[in-house]
Amino acid sequence: MNELSNDILSALKDIVGETGWQAPPDDLTRYTKDWRGIVPGVTSLVVKPANTDEVAAVLAHCNAHGIAVVPQGGHTGMCGAATPDAEGRQIVLSLERMRKIIEIDAAGSTMTVEAGVVLADIQQAAAEAGRLFPLSLGAQGSCQIGGNLSTNAGGVGVLRYGPARSLCLGLEVALADGRIWNGLKKLRKDNTGYDLKQLFIGAEGTLGVITRAVLKLFPPVRQSATAWVAIAGPQAALDLLNAAQVAFGERLTAFEIMPDIAIQPVLQVVPGTRHPLGRAEPWMALIELTGPTPGDDLAEALEAFFGEQLEAGLVSDGALARSEQDRADFWAIREHVAEGEQSYGGSTKHDTSVPVADIPAFIDEASKRVRAYMPEARITAFGHMGDGNIHYNVIRPEDLSFEEFYEHVPEINRIVHDCVAEFGGSMSAEHGLGQIKKAEHARYAPAHELEMQKALKALFDPNGILNPGKLF
Amino acid sequence: MNELSNDILSALKDIVGETGWQAPPDDLTRYTKDWRGIVPGVTSLVVKPANTDEVAAVLAHCNAHGIAVVPQGGHTGMCGAATPDAEGRQIVLSLERMRKIIEIDAAGSTMTVEAGVVLADIQQAAAEAGRLFPLSLGAQGSCQIGGNLSTNAGGVGVLRYGPARSLCLGLEVALADGRIWNGLKKLRKDNTGYDLKQLFIGAEGTLGVITRAVLKLFPPVRQSATAWVAIAGPQAALDLLNAAQVAFGERLTAFEIMPDIAIQPVLQVVPGTRHPLGRAEPWMALIELTGPTPGDDLAEALEAFFGEQLEAGLVSDGALARSEQDRADFWAIREHVAEGEQSYGGSTKHDTSVPVADIPAFIDEASKRVRAYMPEARITAFGHMGDGNIHYNVIRPEDLSFEEFYEHVPEINRIVHDCVAEFGGSMSAEHGLGQIKKAEHARYAPAHELEMQKALKALFDPNGILNPGKLF
């Protein structure tokens, strides 16, 4: 990639106009420091185009001059995919000014938006139109839909609604050379050649810049039933998941599991939390049903179901949310698990997925191997059981210092990821690769896969200007 | 493409072994005549590999010698995508011997199959394992899953379960040069680079040959409620669809609309059919709810819903299926609409999709234009309202001969497809392009789209051996 000459900087500033850029000495930290703060970068220019044409013009200019562009949404990703590198020669292209909701088609259950619209604003606009946009995740107050699509974001609604990929009907994309591809269709069925939008979804901004999207909306949720139950362990969780799926079909919206070690620190560090069962249990599940009509039938059905499961021995104790407050309290514990884990002081995290039915065996096997290597390691495995997506994290043993523990982290990661690979799993179920996981992924990718991926990259971005250093 | 020399033919026969090929003077009609019989072809060799390695070896040999290969499943497609051309230099690669169900993972709700397994066999195997594979279409007794995936098949379950693309978790693909890409994952979440399987799904065999797939299974259906109702027209159908979606969420599994002109000939030509309402109505809808638990609650809810809609004026009459026989009778009418249409003697068919909310305006506008061109044209517009997928067909006026009518067909098609394009629609919602629709599609494709598609084709199949003459 080339140096950013003053001529190039001026030309880029001209494209986006006076209010469309920032540069030093302005504080650019929020554009250059990744959310976890582990791969902070540097830039001489942040451009903030106001529309698709400006995005395209920026790309055309950068492509012609060999300037690297880092597309950026809310900058909340976990793997540094939207952060410039430390060299200072990459410009940041922020979509934050493109935050128009272009159309809500309630009768057709679609919404057309610019890439920079914040996820929470989309959820709210859908609700105001009597519809649901079901993508839901921790960063929803600041992440942007363009980033959600570029990383194929997951979150807590995947079991029922699928990830961001499933929620997208059409895209408009500015290509590396400045052309604009208009695939902004509102169609639920279209079989006319290769489905190009699928390439840009999950590509982390390396094949083009998503500028607009058509999203799928759903009927609103008017009833929910939520339970917190004690279970014997992951195998019981799997059996319970299957029983719940057969009993409730897609009314089953969430099925999260947590071990005691994950929730004890939450109860200690998060004010106002209390154990839903009143006492420690080795493993627990948080289960939620939702439906489109008001009423109590889901709560009644869920209560009856757990009555049966208590008798069958799959569940040993449980609490049903009796109020919206109860429900919020249950979810607050789940949502603070990551924060709670921090209070242990040092851990290494793995965003794994394996085939759903292999979760119990995977947790067993990985834990056996980690403990063989580090007998005092504390292991927490929690998350989206229904998606096969377990956050498998290893916490620093109390008798090791941070520094001692971090010396062992690469080996622990290797042990866990080897085990994931043996189970045919993924070492990045929902967080993507970005800068942080690309090397580790390259080790496990199937034969020819990286070759095909690199060939696609070269095809769509022959000069390599789009988010270089990410994915590969 | 090169000639098929005797050396090449011998080498290909050796790869698949004695029982793995057929050639003239055998009758090869079922491999060379497309289902509709409008683009019959010729071949000197049908190879039927027994496994992925043989598929790959056939491709490697053909790639090295510039021989065109036409991958073929059940050969039930509507657009000639699996039919060799008339020159006789293309070999057919039938997947029919690869019909093993490799694994059913009921607890993980996945099934792993070879590409040649017949769809109905997959449905049955899922049912025997206490699960549902929801892809369902007319040809299910003979179409194969590899073809279903290669054409992203639709059918009657799309409203709830999505098309074939939504039902696939992983693929194994033999590439043009004989390499094998193993993307046969059983994962519900995996964000590690570009989602390559999406490229092969819907590619009609032009980028690689799908050899195995991992499919998603669902909880079984244990209750259904089906209604046949009279409605004022497409706008009332749209309002009713929206009301049903809000009331029932994804319990709403089918929402099909039909005008009187579509069902009258069915009642005349299909033995045993009778009008569910006892008398002609201008427009009707067939609506079905399904759920995972046994009981009558869906029928009760549907009856109550239609009571409200009668009062609100969206529905003017209706019949609820009171038995499995009623339900079968209702569906038999819908399923014979295409056959009924044939009895009019001559029509031109359009597999359109438009944004769901635009269906009423699209039907109005297209019909106005068709009638301006041919005042006596008889128009039928029926199908998957919930998917925005209307089969918009124009039937020969009684006062024109076949020949006279067919002279006008290209102009009628142009009128309809221009109108589809103005509504941002697709001229092939579920049938694909194959040979038959490629030219028409090229006329409407967005800027740069064909260029990107052709570049992808050149990347994955540089020698152009995979299904040449299809898509482009």
Strand content of chain A: 15-25%
Mean pLDDT metric of chain A = 96
Q: Assign the structural class of chain A, choosing from mainly alpha, mainly beta, alpha/beta, alpha+beta, or little secondary structure.
A: alpha+beta
Query: How is the main sheet of chain A built?
Result: 8 strands, antiparallel
Helical segment count of chain A: 16
Shape of chain A: globular
What is the gyration radius of chain A calculated from CA atoms?
Answer: 23 Å
* Overall strand count of chain A: 17
Overview of the structural elements:
- The structure is a homodimer of 472-residue chains.
- The first copy, chain A, has 472 residues and is an alpha+beta fold.
- The first copy, chain A, has helices at 6-16, 29-32, 52-65, 119-128, 145-150, 158-161, 197-200, 234-248, 260-269, 297-312, 324-335, 337-342, 359-373, 402-422, 438-444, 449-460; strands at residues 21-22, 46-47, 69-72, 91-94, 101-105, 110-114, 168-174, 180-183, 209-216, 223-231, 252-259, 283-291, 317-320, 347-348, 351-353, 378-384, 389-395.
- In chain A, the strands form three sheets. In chain A, strands 10, 11, 12, 13, 14, 15, 16 and 17 form an eight-stranded antiparallel β-sheet that branches. Chain A has a five-stranded antiparallel β-sheet with strand order 5-6-9-7-8. A four-stranded mixed β-sheet of chain A has the order 1-2-4-3.
- In chain A, helix 1 (6-16) packs antiparallel against helix 3 (52-65).
- The longest helix of chain A has 21 residues, at 402-422.
- The two termini of chain A are 16 Å apart.
- At the A-B interface, strand 8, helix 8 and helix 16 of A face strand 8, helix 8 and helix 16 of B.
